[in-house]
Each structure stands twice: as structure tokens, then as C-alpha cells.
Amino acid sequence: MRELTEKARAEIAAAGSSAQLEQVRVRYLGRRAELPLLLRGVAQLPPEQRAEVGRQANLARRDLEALIAERMETLAVGEMQGRLAADAIDVTLPGSPTVPVGRLHVLTQTTRELEDIFLGLGFTVLEGPEVETVHYNFDALNHGKTHPARARTDTFYLSNEVVLRTHTSPMQIRAMEAHPPPLYVVIPGRVFRPDSDATHTPQFHQIEGLAVDEDITLADLKGTLLAFARAVFGDERQVRLRPHFFPFTEPSVEVDVSCFQCSGSGSMRDGSRCALCKGEGWLEVLGAGEVDPNVYSAVPDTERNAPGYDPEKVQGYAWGMGIERIAMLKHGIPDLRLYFENDLRFLGQFG
Ligand code: DAH
Predict the structure, then answer these.
(1) What residues of the chain score a pLDDT lower than 50?
(2) Whole-model pTM?
(3) What number of H helices and E strands is found in the chain?
(4) Lining residues, ligand 1, CB within 6 Å
(5) d(CA 6, CA 14)
(6) Which residues, at least 6 apart from 170, have a Cβ–Cβ distance to it below 8 Å?
(7) Residue range 270-291, pLDDT digits in tens
(8) Quick check: 18 and 76 in contact, CB under 8 A?
(9) By C-alpha distance, which of 234, 216, 199, 227 is closest to 318?
(10) Beta-ladder partners of 205
(11) How many A from CA of 247 to the centre of ligand 1?
(12) Strand pairing partners for 317?
């Protein structure tokens, strides 16, 4: 009996799980185990042994039962804790899978960056219609009846009088009709031309600028664009104006920014030609000029519309720049079509 209980005690102590302990219990206290059989056989023993054997076997059984119950409790608590730890949910962790967060398209980012720069210089942001009349898109902007941009091959006509605007410049007229001078506005927006190749897409974006006040000169234009160039391309930049022609400005200029890759020298440290400016040292970024007096004359001086655009009294400058081009230069984007292909590997690189 002693031997049996010692062995049982050792196995109870060694049981590593409630399932193992249950096996130990069946082995020692189960219906066909030695101790219960002994207890059941007490009646068959000689009378003088019955009391003593019965007492000891009962003691042993109760002893083992108590031990098993105690050990079971310990194991159950440990197992419960293990399950709780394994099941633990940290409600403060982000949801899984993490929800992908979108971002603004690089052209939207660039547009907003440009708006911020000009807002900082005192300009107001306006927007205008993408479907425009021939009057605002061409006539009021001093395009002669035979100007080549009017050709059906260069402009999307919706009817003889209605086009998809080919530039943001028509908003110059609409802005002046709505607001008297002084006027300082920028107009970002989508424009359309029937072009499609590696450097042209039928839809692209411009940001127009218009400042009308008294005593405005090309020097004001240059100072404004220098501030823009430095804000976008770095504090070291310079700008230069080259003579050009636009129907709605006189004089007209093309504006270049000194190349930020070669610092305007046209060549790299190792002597090779700068690939960004093709050795020029300058990057062409926009068209501009002093507003042509004929443009002011196209702004009707009526009760309803804002008066005051008397070409004898006001001067102003205007510019138009391509937003795709600014972002391409700034980020080294090699192909215009990347903007519109919606490849997340490209779009995900910005912002
Ligand atoms: N509208 C011209 C274009 O799309 C760009 C431009 C040039 C706008 C000179 C202007 C300007 O306001 O003064 O090519």
C-alpha cells in the first residue's frame, strides 16, 4: 500500500496538464484500479483484517483524491492563464489589415504648393469653366481671326462658338469682369488640346497669373516669378526673360529658371553636359508678359460688370505655366504619361 501511494503521489506531482492528471486519476482511482478493487474486496477478507485494511485503503484513497483535486486546481489555473495570454487582444493596436491611406495626386500636391506660394505673395485663387466660349478663349484675348491656335486641329470644338478651353487665360477676362482693379489672382485648372505623344497629353494643367494695378512693370513680373522660382526650385535660383510673342501680352516673354541640377553652369562636376537643361544652364518654365491694352478693352465697362480697366490707367502682367512641367522638373519625372496611368508604384512616391 505504501509503495502504491508513493508511486501515485509522484505521478500526480509530475502531471503536466489536467489531461495527464486525469489519466493518473483513472489509473489509481478508476473503477478497475488497484485501490478501489481492494476496497471493494474488503468484505472477503478474514474478519480480523477487514477493519484495518479498510481504514488504511480509505485513508489512502482520500489522500490521493485530495492531492489530485489540489493539483487539478493548480493546473487548471495555469492553463486558463495560458489561454488568456494566447487570446489576448490589444485593442489599442491599429486594425488589421491596416487600411491603406490614400494621398493626393502629385499634380494636386504641386497645384496646392503653387497656390500657397502665390497666396503668400498676396494673390487670390480663382477657378473657371473648362468648357469655354470662343469669345473668352480667343477673341477677348486678342487672337486675330486667323490665329493658328483656333484651327480645328489645335482646339477641341464642341460647336462653332464653344470649345474645351485650350489655356487658363480666358479666366483673365472673367476675373476682370467680376472684380475691379487692383487685381491679383492665380487660376489653376485643366486645359485641353488635341495633342498626344511623349511630351503632350490631350489634357493637362496650367496655373495662370494676372496682376493689374497702376504702375506695374516687367520688373514686378520678374520679381514675382523670382520668388516663385526660389520657393519651388531653391533659394539659389535666378530667372531670365527672353522676348517672345503672345497675342494677349505686349511685350511678351518666355521665362527661364537657372538649372538647379548644374546650378546654371550647364555642366556637371565631372565635366559632362547637364542632362536636365541639356547644357543650357536654363530651364524654360512659362510664358508671360505685360497685359496687352486690347485685352483691357475687351472687358466690358457696364453697370453689372466691374468697371475700371481703362488701358490708359492700368497696367498689369500675366503668366501661364504648365503644372505637369513644373512637377516633372522638380521631381525628375521622365514621362508625362505617368501622371495619368494611375500606377500606384509611381503615385505612391510623392507626399
Ligand atoms: N496661355 C499661354 C499658353 O497656353 C500661356 C501664357 C503666356 C499665359 C503668356 C499668359 C501669358 O498669361 O501672359 O501657351
Answers:
(1) none
(2) 0.73
(3) 11, 9
(4) 167, 169, 208, 246, 249, 287-289, 318-320
(5) 12
(6) 128, 132, 136, 137, 140, 141
(7) 999 999 999 999 999 999 999 9
(8) yes
(9) 216
(10) 190
(11) 9
(12) 211, 290
